[in-house]
Specification:
four-stranded antiparallel β-sheet; alpha/beta; homodimer; 20 strands; 12 helices; nine-stranded mixed β-sheet; 18% strand; 497 residues; elongated
Chain lengths: 497, 497
């Protein structure tokens, strides 16, 4: 029985009637990872073909703010020109902690030691950086300035682990077009290197030879099946699985608690991951996701305290909002309240979809209005205020600069409910890969001829509670490049695993 | 380049020099799932061969208490003879909630409707049941009695969802030999059916033909490679991955917080799951695990309250201890305290490795001795007592029969710390399968010729917070049987997915 090839059913070489197209390296997906892979493979002398399902380049990367997390080595030009020095060890320790209990040390080390050169590379590809710095905690400033504090650097427990330093690097772009500008530069470079690109072309299935080496790709174009030979290998850069309802249910069911705010360019259907699995690649950390809650600006709201449906606090509110949102998803119940007093209250941003749930002259009144169990919210605020007055937060270790007793009435509870407020999200799980992009089985053996990068792989960002803005695009571009170089060699890497 | 076959690298049919052994159905693993599969396949007329890595039958199943979770249809003989009636719908609703946000409804429905007949089948295989009932919350009674309340039936939120009923069915066995007795009966039946068994034989890799159908198994015996033909299919019943350090780190890193108390017969190395992945089978729920904390007996301790390292309560303490331990792993920090007063205190069991952390005449004294943040533990106890006096627990919904103000000094905090107390554990993630055992890819297509059951598959128990004692062996035996029947037909099932 012959079956139609699909992402989860590879095509055997002897089922290929003839090759319609040939290249050394075939890259699936023209987002940040795919573009970076194509550039490096082409520069290494390979004939490269990009297969892109959309009608243009960019993918989900182009929708992002364009932030790239970089530092170490004394500092990037943007860091040093603003008076920041950043040691490779601090950068490494921060990134390692951000990777969670299963951080990929080899990958983190390569990134920490290579980030400075990577910034130069980005500039050489034509990505514009103004090298200016915005202090405070800006979220998507959209001013064209470069350097921002984009993670939990100054927040516990990261601040105990590594000297804080701003490491988010934004392209010179206005509004929220940073990702677009980044991808325009990379795509222009891809074209100038003579890389072929097929748009409106869907990677349908991998082609494997008798020795189980990946040697090509079945592609659907205008409803027609095309067979593309890849003598050096296939690099899967097809994004994550945030739009695949079945995969979400089976791998990350907690996502069903969020409103429909998936971050995607429209094609994160998990087909890259599924193609890797079809030939024995292991998919890891599939339950991990990025989500966030833009509860500031206004920055004053960081001085508020977040409580769950039982009136209990659960995290330091000065952590990166992505870490906070991950903790929110770990709580039972879908109601969350940001408690503020008159001194710090401002209208929440429209974007956040945070509304006012209750207002009162006393916290007892607010507690009653929210129908919380008697004594819960009141004692949470009381314990917080008791310590905040001394500039301390022994429970959650919020930095003293964000500590303030909530004692100036009227008081308000702002609703940050799951399923209601804006919690954008994307997936962090993906194929297990070496830093070279070589896809690995569960035994740690490479699948010959197969590479992955970006959110099709499980890379640097693999733990929702450790995410900082700029980590995913940093991973996409840095390790996309490595995968491109590796695939161009046609040889397995030396590193064991 | 020819590579050595391994669990993650299948062997191509044309690499098989000759067949050393042949069978219709090859079963990998002789625990509860493998035995049940072999019995049904043999009864359907198939020539069956079991490959077992250990020197005898039993696997991890034989180490368990032997509890099987059964009910519905008005009640099993053990239920009705003790005055319990149990509707299929209540049983279904309980099992569905226990399966969590991604419960497999089709599987739950089949199980709820087939459990009564399954009890008969177990008795027909010779498993001895005394049909007696032990009231209360016994844990591993070891008396040979049959029926126990083995889950969260009477606890919120399950009690809101389904009428509580005891559904744990233990074989007539003394001490902790229930699993052993169960497996002895099944193994005797396997032998009487003329099933061939190879012990000390390791399933090394699947053999696939050019159409990617699984048609055999590479087996290592005494260091020699043997090729086993399976014309009807291979059923993987090789257990979970709780002994595979690399897989634990990548799939369930939270396990590193526990002491070395893995529940395993010695061979849960994930090789079954890895073999399935090697031919495109998807492994799902790999982050989910079962763990528990035997903080009772003494039953009086259920009236205590559990707090985390921040002095906060987080669950109703009358839930199944496996649910409680899962919630414990969701908390930040590794210190946990069971708070008791003089009226309910008894010495914790030696098994539990729970020790006395602090004693005081007031809760303030206990709070200080534990070095908890001032006011935290005290306000937790105060809020609990305030409501417990009225027989209420509005925060966590503990049943009133377990509610008691903790107001009789001296007071004590019992240390239930992660990494210190006894939290036995095993893995719940595994291959995605139809109820028939057919292994599915991420796209939901069956991998021809491949089946899985028991903890190699992701079955009924797939959510740590929903586990009840007896669910895993219930799943192993019930769906092991279905896989055996299906494989014996040599045909794919009709059900879509």
């Amino acid at each position: 029985m012959r079956v139609t090839p699909s992402p989860s059913r590879p095509c055997a070489l002897d089922e290929v009637p003839s090759w319609d197209l040939e290249a050394d390296v075939v890259v699936v997906g023209f987002g940040a990872a795919g573009a970076s892979a194509a550039i490096e493979a082409a520069e290494a002398g390979a004939k490269v073909l990009i297969i892109e399902v959309a009608s243009g380049h960019g993918g989900t990367s182009a929708m992002a703010g364009g932030d790239i997390y970089l530092g170490g080595g004394g500092g990037t030009p943007a860091q040093t020109e603003n008076g920041f020095s950043d040691s490779t060890e601090d950068f490494y320790r921060y990134m390692k902690m951000a990777g969670g209990p299963d951080a990929d040390e080899e990958r983190v080390r390569l990134y920490a030691e290579g980030a400075l050169a990577h910034f130069d590379w980005l500039e050489r590809q034509g990505v514009p950086y103004r090298r200016t710095y915005i202090p405070g905690k800006p979220v998507m400033p959209g001013t064209g300035d470069c350097l921002i504090l984009s993670g939990s650097e100054e927040a516990w427990p990261f601040s105990e682990e590594a000297e804080p330093c701003p490491r988010g690097h934004l392209p010179d772009a206005t509004g929220e077009t940073g990702g677009f500008v980044l991808l325009e530069s990379l795509a222009t470079r891809v074209r100038s290197l003579g890389v072929d690109v097929l748009f409106d072309a869907r990677g349908q299935a991998l082609i494997v030879d008798a020795a189980r080496r990946v040697c090509g790709l079945v592609v659907m174009i205008d409803g027609e099946t095309r067979y593309v030979r890849a003598s050096g290998g296939v690099i899967l850069c097809a994004g994550g699985f945030v739009l695949n309802r079945t995969m979400l249910e089976q791998y990350a069911p907690q996502i069903s608690r969020l409103a429909d705010d998936a971050l995607s360019g429209g094609y994160d259907d998990g087909s890259g991951i599924r193609m890797g699995q079809s030939v024995g690649g292991a998919a890891i950390h599939m339950n991990e996701m990025f989500t966030t809650l833009p509860f500031y600006p206004p920055e004053s709201h960081i001085k508020g305290i977040l409580v769950n449906d039982r009136g209990a606090r659960f995290i330091n509110e000065d952590a990166y909002p992505g870490r906070i949102a991950t903790y929110i998803l770990d709580q039972v119940g879908d109601r969350f309240f940001l408690l503020v007093d008159d001194a710090i209250f401002e209208q929440p941003s429209e974007l956040s979809r945070i509304s006012i749930a209750a207002v009162g002259e006393t916290w007892e009144e607010v507690e009653r209005e929210l129908e919380l169990v008697e004594g819960t919210l009141v004692s949470t605020v009381k314990i917080h205020n008791l310590h905040a007055e001394k500039g301390e937060d022994p429970l959650f270790h919020k930095h003293r600069k964000w500590l303030k007793p909530l004692d100036e009435p009227p008081f308000a509870a702002l609703a940050c409910h799951l399923g209601e407020a804006f919690y954008p999200y994307f997936t962090l799980g993906g194929l297990r890969v070496r830093p070279t992009g070589e896809v690995l089985t569960s035994d740690g053996d490479p699948v010959p001829g197969l590479y992955a990068a970006g959110r099709t792989a499980c890379g640097l960002p693999r733990w929702g509670a450790g995410y900082s803005s700029g980590m995913s695009l940093g991973d996409c571009t840095f390790f996309g490049r490595m995968a491109g170089r590796q695939a161009a060699t046609h040889e397995p890497s030396e590193n064991g695993d």
